[in-house]
Write a structure and sequence with these properties.
88 residues
């Protein structure tokens, strides 16, 4: 006698603790992409207003120059990450 099942064994998923319903990484990335682009876009818009006072003060002090360059690098990164915000 054989035990026939209406479903083939391949259609049944593995059972055990490793099959917990964990969200797919791609869906997590997709859900975070919009808010991350929004934030990066607006950071890229706001940072030049922080650069201006540093430039008016002058870049003679090494700490001011380092701060300006760090903010400039952050602005470039924010421009790169936020460039696709609100595009269909």
């Amino acid at each position: 006698m054989s035990n026939h099942s209406p479903l083939p064994n391949e259609s049944l998923g593995p059972s055990g603790p490793e099959t917990d319903h964990q969200p797919d990484r791609r869906s997590i990335v997709r859900s975070l992409k919009g808010p991350a682009q929004f934030l990066a876009f607006w950071i890229a818009i706001a940072l030049p207003f922080v650069h201006f006072p540093l430039l008016v003060q002058g870049l003679g002090d090494p700490s001011v120059t380092l701060t300006f360059l760090a903010l400039l690098a952050l602005n470039v990164l924010a421009l790169y990450l936020g460039h696709g915000y609100n595009q269909d």
